[in-house]
Amino acid sequence: MIRVEDLHMHFGGIRAVDGASIEIEEGSITGLIGPNGAGKTTLFNVVAGHYTPTSGRVFLDGEDITGLPPHELFHRGLLRTFQIAHEFSTLTVRDNLMMVPPAQKGERLLDAWFRPGEVRAQERAIREKAEDVIDFLEISHVADELAGNLSGGQKKLLELGRTMMVDAKIVFLDEVGAGVNRTLLHTIGDAIQRLNRERGYTFCMIEHDMDFISRLCDPVIVMAEGRVLAKGDVASVKADERVIEAYLGTGLKNKVIA
């Protein structure tokens, strides 16, 4: 589904991504791991259109999407979340979800004046979609809560729910587990797996929690110093001497990859 070929992203003399090539298969939950500064988030930002690469190409379903802005990729079904959730804090959870679908008739003054029936019908459909998402994620107890009042984990669930409002093809999750308690992390993991199995979502996720990665991801891609170091299942990646060396900042042979 996603193919990245010989990608370079330089910031002055810093080679944040330095010739990385990856493939993300349709229907997979692919993990992207590596030590801090490995280039993972920069790679995400290039694929998601936030940066135009110095060189290299990005393909979605065989079509070159290199350098397309995020709003165009959004319409093609490619979405990403952020390590720090970007909710509308003064709107309710339900309204946050209902804001997502593009080209809503109620946003156009002429439609609001001359086609109020169409506006109401579309709004009902969007509200029904939001209720389906709320039920799926089991967050009905906070549906009418202001998003700014949610916990960190609930905000991550809301971000996941927002991707469901447009039936995304592929979602890039940037440290969805960061700052989330274990109970909510389990809930988020269940939602990702169900979206993958039941609704055909493809995911690629940056994560430092190897238990979470082990539970969800196959394959796992390891980056270090802007390059792809290894790819495989969790067990083979954790046993790879190159991966162990990349994570050894203190010389401890048995340091857990995190």
UniProtKB/TrEMBL annotation:
Domain ABC transporter: 2-250
Keyword field: ATP-binding, Nucleotide-binding, Transport
One Pfam assignment: BCA_ABC_TP_C
Listed PROSITE patterns: ABC_TRANSPORTER_1, ABC_TRANSPORTER_2
SUPFAM superfamilies for the chain: P-loop containing nucleoside triphosphate hydrolases
Descriptive protein name: ABC transporter ATP-binding protein
SMART domains according to UniProt: AAA
GO CC annotations, alphabetized: plasma membrane
Species name: Pontivivens nitratireducens
Single GO molecular function: ATP binding
